[in-house]
Amino acid sequence: MSEENTGTSLEQAMIDNVQEQAAEAVEATEEVQQPQEELSAEEKEAAEKEAATKAAEAALGGGSDEAEVEGEGAGEASASADADAAAAADAEYKSRLRAFTRELKKQPGQWYIIQCYSGYENKVKTNLDMRAQTLEVEDSIFEVVVPVEQAIEKKDGKKKVVKRKLLPGYVLVRMELNDAAWSVVRDTPGVTSFVGNEGNATPVKIRDVAKFLMPNDPTVSPEASAADSEGEQVVAMPEKEAAKAYAHDFEVGEAVTILSGPLASVSATISEIDPETGKMQGLVSIFGRETPVELSPTEIERIS
After folding, report:
1. Structure pTM?
2. Strand partners, 152
3. pLDDT digits (tens, 9 = 90+) for 44-62
4. 108-242 domain in CATH 3.30.70.940?
5. Are 193 and 169 within 8 A, CB to CB?
6. What is the per-residue pLDDT for 55?
7. Fewest beta carbons less than 10 Å away: which of 122, 196, 213, 233?
8. pLDDT tens across 265-295, in order?
């Protein structure tokens, strides 16, 4: 072999060696980079999942907060609407009361309260009407009223109209007070006395009388009234559903405030509770005398 061929072979071998080393270096680099690229992909995928999870949680949390805000807003709106309705009803009631009081003031005479035996209100009215005619004092005794509220009560699946006295033990009389009229009233069987200062007959404020005589229903005429077979004059009241028995935690002896009706804002003391029905009876001071009245859990509140 010539020197020239020998040099060429050595040169070619060196070139091949360098190429092989370069190829090995490239393969080594690729092997090192491959796991790094795969790890980066895994990290990227994990990061994407974590971001999606956080986004979902944020969306859910935001929706919950929005729902709470909407719920609170709806609750506040409902409470505001109830307050507005109650204020409107109170304003309407006071307006009707003022108008009804003005009408009563136009009538002759003054209103007096006579006290009688409990349960004898109807008989006192009937007897007083008859005595006023017989003893010819109709020009002084104009009107005798036993205020009664009508309600519909369901019993044995049937509706029945019941009447409740608004002033048990009392009768209202519109009259001109003079000796003859006073004597007729005072001597009527069942009457115990006039209500007044130190036993003297004292006129009652017309506004107070109006609270018991004014119909609850604005569509009912104030003059509308009826007399039953016993001579009881029924003040024209709407036939509302009688108070049902409710479960409650009121106790005997507890002091409460009446929220509606002629005795609204008056304090009462619970005297009886029916353990089976939950119905309550309370004592109310009316014209200086404790008078029993029926109480409904929905129409009273505790005195704090």
Report:
1. 0.58
2. 161, 241
3. 666 666 766 665 555 545 5
4. yes
5. no
6. 57
7. 196
8. 788 999 988 877 777 888 888 766 677 888 8
